[in-house]
Amino acid sequence: MVELPSLSPLGYHRAVLSHVRRVDERAWEALRPAEADDPGLTETLLRNTYRLEAGGHPALHEAGRRAAEALGLEVEVEFFQAQGAGQPNASLLHQSGKAVILFEGPLLDRLTPDELAAVCGHELAHRLLWTIDDGAYLAVDRLLDAAAGDARTPAQYLETRRRWVMASELFADRGALKACGDLSTTVRALLKVQTGLSGVDPEAYLRQAGELDLSTGSRGTSHPEGVARAWALQNWIAGEDVEVLLTGPLDVDAPDLLDAVLLRELSMDFAAHIAQTEGLRSDTVATYAAGFADPPGPLGVPGGAVPRFDEPLAIRPVDGAPIPRPRALTAATKQYLCYLLLDLATADPDAGDEGLVASLRLARRAGLTPYDDLADDELGWSDKRRAELAAAADGVIQ
Questions:
Q1: CA–CA dist 271, 286 (Å, integer)
Q2: Radius of gyration of the chain from Cα atoms?
Q3: What strands, in cross-sheet order, belong to the sheet with 89-94?
Q4: Longest dimension (CA), the chain
Q5: How confident is the model over 130-186, as pLDDT tens digits?
Q6: Angstrom distance (rounded) from CA 160 to CA 168
Q7: E strand or H helix at 91, and its extent?
Q8: Which residues are bridge partners to 104 per DSSP?
């Protein structure tokens, strides 16, 4: 049997927790005592579900005991079956003093004992996450959940919640694998829950996952795609980075709270490069560039060469960024950087053609290939003038 890595919150969890503690201190303090049960939950369950007691369902309780032991949880576990012919599913109803798992549809009839342990492990892993660090992750979960229900919530919080929930599902999948100890069994249980089928081929599903490029991130709204979850489990065992599913490329149109910080840092660094570029170096450009500092102020000269934006960018970790991995930039982010360059290149009327040529040269060094077309569209160059400026930038004598 393959030795599994230790189970701990994902880097994304830790980064968001760090950010919320620092930036949203009042909200954090308000939600920190997160152990508040729903007083009507027990009565609702007793009225509307079937309680699965140990005497009538010993295999289920044994699976729950096995899962709890594998996760190091000492907690009473209660099981209920929803009424009606719903879709196969299982969910954790969080209570401070006990774990409550609700099954829906005909799921229990389709799972082997090992698969049942995996499903119980997935749900109990949610409880494990929410009790780590005295409920810190539960507090963040509730903060983001409350924010999602408020129409005034900035989009960055909504994107953070989307990624946070997906990170929690990846953590819970690891709990499923810990509970049953076998990747094929875990993927088979996942497939049975998702498809409703009684017979599935987990190895075929893992081969299917291998045919996808998942570097662009998951498009899921709450759960990553099933094939991505299977891929993530396989790569977690191998010690590979799977959090690219959560982050994907750096996108100025859809940043979460962490990416917003990274984008501010990236803008500030690039503005500093621009302000120190020969042909653009002036008090006017420096003043405009200073607006990208946080808080606004004079920008220092960033060390090293101008970054290349046409390849994955090694952005230094900021404010507990998840994992310092190279991030590709979306077309929208590259366009934003082109506009930043153009705005500073035209900020000083006295710079004239020298400033425009300097910006074209800088765009070439930075790999911002859309810059020529964007500048042409915005400034309305004639074909002749564009050719002259491009030739000057490329060092061509006409």
A1: 9
A2: 26
A3: 49-51, 76-82, 98-104, 89-94
A4: 92
A5: 999 988 999 899 889 988 888 888 999 999 999 999 999 999 999 999 999 999 999
A6: 12
A7: strand 89-94
A8: 89
H/E element, 47: helix 41-48
Residue 35 has pLDDT above 70, yes or no: no
17 token code pair: 């927790």
Cα–Cα distance list, 126 to 9, 48, 120, 176 (Å): 11, 24, 10, 10
Q: Return the structure tokens found at 41.
A: 């939950």
Residue 277 to residues 234, 274, 333, Cα–Cα distance (Å): 47, 5, 21
Q: 325-357 burial, b if ≥16 CB within 10 A, otherwise e?
A: eebbbbeebbbbbbebbbbbbbbbeebeeebbb
**What number of residues does the chain have?**
398
- Helical (H) or strand (E) element with 77: strand 76-82
Is the distance from CB of 199 to CB of 115 less than 8 angstroms? no
Interatomic CA distance for residues 270 and 366, integer angstroms: 10
What the block records as the tokens of 72 is 């190091």
CA dist list (Å): 57 to 38, 61, 92, 315: 26, 7, 18, 53
Where is 81: in which H helix or E strand? Answer: strand 76-82
